[in-house]
Give the backbone structure.
Amino acid sequence: MVEEKSIELFITEEEFQLLEALAQADVPHSLRAQAILAVDAGSSMEQAALVANLKLTQVRFWLGRFRNSRLNIFPEAMIEAITRSIETEKKQRAEFKKAEKKKKDKKDKKAKSEI
């Protein structure tokens, strides 16, 4: 058996977030994303095929397409919707952190004034 070399996909943080979300989306897009993420995590193409429930030839095909077209292998509308969702989630987290900091600052100020 020939040992397979590890494949470097050089996935960016933004691509990773989108692929993670796509991996939870509807089939067949989720299977493609799962295979790409598995290979990026160090799995062989055979292992990625098992993880994503795809044939080895399908994994090879989608990895090749991903290398050439990146996230363009997924429908544009799906990528846009997920991007908006991620941005909304980031804004909500930032607003929550800001509100929590404000509460803490107010509590600290009150504690200092009682001393």
Remarks:
- The two ends are 74 Å apart (CA to CA).
- The mean pLDDT is 91.
- Residues 76-114 form the longest helix (39 residues).
